[in-house]
Amino acid sequence: xxxxxxxxxxxxxxxxxxxxxxxxxxxxxxxxxxxxxxxxxxxxxxxxxxxxxxxxxxxxxxxxxxxxxxxxxxxxxxxxxxxxxxxxxxxxxxxxxxxxxxxxxxxxxxxxxxxxxxxxxxxxxxxxxxxxxxxxxxxxxxxxxxxxxxxxxxxxxxxxxxxxxxxxxxxxxxxxxxxxxxx
Length: 183
Hints:
This protein has 183 residues and is mainly α. The chain is 63% helix and 0% strand. The protein is built from 6 helices and no strands. The protein has helices spanning 32-37, 44-82, 88-105, 111-129, 137-152, 160-176. Helix 4 packs antiparallel against helix 5 (137-152) and helix 5 runs antiparallel to helix 6 (160-176).
């Protein structure tokens, strides 16, 4: 029998039997997914149609989700004002809502929501991590009010000059507290 490649031993001989101990053997497993899908790939036109449908439906659904999130945020903040603004659990609850809104805002055409919740979440994180920092209604309330305006007026995109002015004002408010704005 002709010399066999040691990487392809005869079927009756287990793989690696010829290899000296300690030598690495590389095994490439079969690609079952490629076998199922075949070589045709993805229908780019169908993918484009699906993306458009997701954007249209998502944009409509996001407005409702964001309104619900804003309602939850207002309720959480009202509860904090009645008990303690510095309650770590209340701050964490507000943070989770901010993160939800922040993550989806840009995806569905509301980058102002993402920016506003980014500033607010940075401020709240600062309040949790710095023992000297205190949660202030003078910082949180303008953020909640700004979110309400953006969502109720359905201000998509950057909001033009008014949106930039709003963002600059909120940024100044947060920076005065010692919180960082950067990512």
